[in-house]
Amino acid sequence: MTRRVWAPRGQRPTALGHHRYEWLYVTAFVAPATGESHWYVGNGVSKPLFERLLALFAQEAGAGPQRTILLLLDGAGWHTEPGLRVPDGLRLIHLPPYTPELQPAEHLWRLVDEPIVNWHFDRIAEIQDRIEQRCRDLEARPDILRDNTLFRWWPQKSTPN
Predict the structure, then answer these.
(1) Least confident of 46-50, 114-118, 130-134, 156-160
(2) pTM for this one?
(3) Higher model confidence: residue 19 or residue 45?
(4) Strand partners of residue 28
(5) Taking residues 119-123, what's their average pLDDT?
(6) Of 79, 81, 149, 157, which has the fewest CB atoms closer than 10 Å, so is most exposed?
(7) In this structure, what are the phi and psi dihedrals at residue 131, rounded to the nearest 5 degrees?
(8) Using only C-alpha atoms, what is the Rg of the chain?
(9) pLDDT one-digit tens code per residue, 38-88
(10) Which pLDDT tens digit goes with each residue over 35-49?
(11) Distance CA 31, CA 146 (A)
(12) Rounded to 5 degrees, what are φ and ψ at 91?
């Protein structure tokens, strides 16, 4: 994502950087209609890890015989279903390829990144601390999450007659 930075007029801005090969991944589950969210921060992605995240999410969100949760997923390799163990109460719905604009969670990343943009960190642990705090802050503000993920075309909860 391109961001603006201050620099003297006519000069190219300079940003500190250091190429590293440590990674940090944020997984977010959000209910657009309510802003309810669950956040997980880790250092990798894989199908076994995603299975564990699904199980943890199902437990924390109360998915099961009494509550079915539909998860909208993109086509990432670790999201694919062949051999993927999906907990009871979760149903996976895969988006068409190359349609991130349809994925509500894609609109969360600019909010997550906000506290680290244009900052230099010496250690990835510093970034992780800042990101984890940001995720807790966002989880406590469902109104912000709802405003960024509840598209006008998103299905609304209906009450039977």
Answers:
(1) 156-160
(2) 0.79
(3) 45
(4) 39
(5) 90
(6) 157
(7) -70, -45
(8) 18
(9) 999 998 899 999 999 999 999 999 999 999 999 999 888 888 878 889 999
(10) 999 999 998 899 999
(11) 8
(12) -125, 125
Q: How confident is the model at residue 160 (pLDDT cuts 50, 70, 90)?
A: low
Give the other-Cβ count within 10 Å of 32's Cβ.
Answer: 21
Residue bearing tokens 């956040």:
39
Residue 81's SS3 state is: coil
3-state helix, strand, coil in the chain (%, to 5): 35, 15, 50
- Using DSSP, state whether 55 is helix, strand or coil: helix
**8 Å CB contact between 158 and 55:** no
Sign of the CA dihedral with 121 first, then 114, 54, and 102 last: negative
Which two tokens mark 82?
Answer: 């062949």
Domains of the chain in sequence order: 25-147 (3.30.420.10)
Q: Tell me the DSSP string of 103-128.
A: -GGGGGHHHHHTTTTT---SSHHHHH
Residues 6+ apart with CB under 8 A from 38: 28, 29, 57, 60, 61, 139
| The token pair that represents 129 in the structure block | 């601390």
Query: Cα(17)–Cα(137) distance, rounded to whole angstroms?
Result: 27
Are β-strands 90-94 and 37-42 bridged in parallel, bridged antiparallel, or unpaired? unpaired
Asked if 5 and 13 touch (Cβ cutoff 8 Å), the reply is: yes
Instruction: Check residue 20 and give its pLDDT.
Output: 58
